[in-house]
Each structure stands twice: as C-alpha cells, then as structure tokens.
C-alpha cells in the first residue's frame, strides 16, 4: 500500500521500480549480447554436413561417412537439405524416409543408411528413385526446385562413391 507515492517502507514507489528495471535491462542486454556472440562462434565451428550425416547414418561405417563428407564438399550440398548456415533448404527424400520410419513406429528412425555399405546403397537408390518419381505433382518455388536438383546431384555422386567401395 502506498500513500502519496510513498511505499510501505518509506521509499518512493516509482523511483525504486525504475532503478530496478534499469538494472535488469542492463544485465539482460549484456547477457543477450554474450549469448549471441557465443552462438555465432558455435555456428562457425559447426560442420552441418557432418550433422546432416549423423541425422541419417549414426550406425554407418566410416567409409560411408567419408564418402558422404567428400561428396558434400564436392557438390556443396548434402542429402538432408541442410544449408551451410544450418537452415533446411527443403524437405529431402532422406528426411521423408526418416518421417516414414517414425510414423511406422520404428524406434531407430534416424538410421536410414544402416550399418553396411550395401544398406547405404539401398537407401540412396530409394531416395533417388523417390526423387525422380514423386507420388503427386507438386508446385515448388524456384529455390526449392534448385535445392532438389542439388539433392539429386548429391545422391548420384554419393551412389557412385558407394558402389566403388
């Protein structure tokens, strides 16, 4: 309760709240700046091609991972559609395979490439087939269509490397 603008402890109510708000705003601004700088440093250090591989091939052998990383550098794209800034360019066929496994109730839905070179070849061939034979006509933006072209280029090159293993 306040009388004539003076609180119960004898302090002016508005002055106390203003100083407290100013201190909180200053500490939050400093904290926010530090968080943004830390996040930017983490983003620069993150290899999104490797992160994309981990999304679809956590149990794949090292030679499959090496082929994935090599193709991702050559094509400047990966099979999951994650761009260099960490954003998704479009929904890729390997992401569709992940979602399909999830909807079927499979517990390890992230393991698209499997644990052998042969299983990675099968998954890549399936993704390439699905990309070339869509179930329905879809109207896409120019950016999404360009991303799908890069995705196809990635799958073709990845498949070639896998078949040489």
Describe the structure in your own words.
- This protein is mainly α and 165 residues long.
- 64% of the residues lie in helices and 0% in strands.
- The protein has helices spanning 13-45, 48-56, 62-75, 93-103, 117-132, 142-164.
- The longest helix is centred in the first third of the chain and has 33 residues, at 13-45.
- The mean pLDDT is 83.
Number of helices: 6
Major sheet description: none
Structural class: mainly alpha
Proportion of β residues?
under 5%
Sequence stretches where pLDDT stays below 50 over 5 or more residues: none
The radius of gyration is 25 Å
Kindly, what is the distance between the CA atoms of the first and last residues, rounded to a whole number of angstroms? 79 Å
Q: Averaged pLDDT, please?
A: 83
Helicity range: 55-70%
The geometry reads as globular
Order of helices and strands: HHHHHH
Q: How many extended strands?
A: 0
């Amino acid at each position: 309760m306040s009388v004539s603008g003076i609180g119960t402890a004898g302090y002016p109510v508005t002055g106390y709240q203003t100083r407290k708000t100013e201190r909180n705003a200053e500490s939050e601004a400093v904290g926010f700046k530090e968080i943004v700088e830390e996040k930017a440093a983490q983003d620069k250090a993150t290899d999104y091609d490797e992160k994309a591989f981990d999304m679809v091939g956590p149990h794949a052998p090292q030679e499959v991972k090496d082929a994935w990383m090599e193709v991702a550098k050559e094509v400047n794209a990966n099979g999951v559609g994650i761009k260099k800034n960490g954003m998704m360019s479009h929904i890729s066929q390997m992401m569709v395979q992940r979602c399909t496994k999830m909807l079927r109730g499979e517990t390890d839905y992230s393991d698209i490439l499997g644990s052998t070179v042969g299983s990675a070849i099968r998954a890549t061939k399936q993704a390439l087939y699905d990309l070339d034979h869509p179930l329905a006509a879809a109207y896409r933006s120019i950016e999404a269509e360009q991303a799908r072209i890069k995705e196809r280029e990635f799958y073709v090159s990845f498949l070639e490397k896998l078949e040489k293993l």
